């Protein structure tokens, strides 16, 4: 009986420590998911303020991949070169993340949502997904970006 009285508090302490560690391990993942959403929102804000080209060049990882319709994957330096040649003066591209997730490693994640491409007389909408990698400095940059047309087209009638 004396052994049971000694083991019971030790077991209870072990349980409390285990629960506490599990809760602490969940916090960084929730924070990282929020960090990805904030990075994605800041990425869109920069695109709206200074243009799609500048935003994409700022947020692409050195090994980043662009998946674009009718083209093979555009990878790394080729992606940056491709983006550098874009003329984004006649449109505005913005997007809103609808969700995000984080890998167990806590250094990779994804975001997805709806983009809006505003041309002079037309607004195009579609969906997108970005895969993100946490950099050594703590910033998030995308390693894969893809979009898909399909939410509909609205012609402005002015």
UniProtKB/TrEMBL annotation:
Pfam families in UniProt: DUF4440
PROSITE patterns named in the record: PROKAR_LIPOPROTEIN
Every DUF4440 domain range: 51-141
Domain of life of the source: Bacteria
Name of the protein: Nuclear transport factor 2 family protein
UniProt source species: Ginsengibacter hankyongi
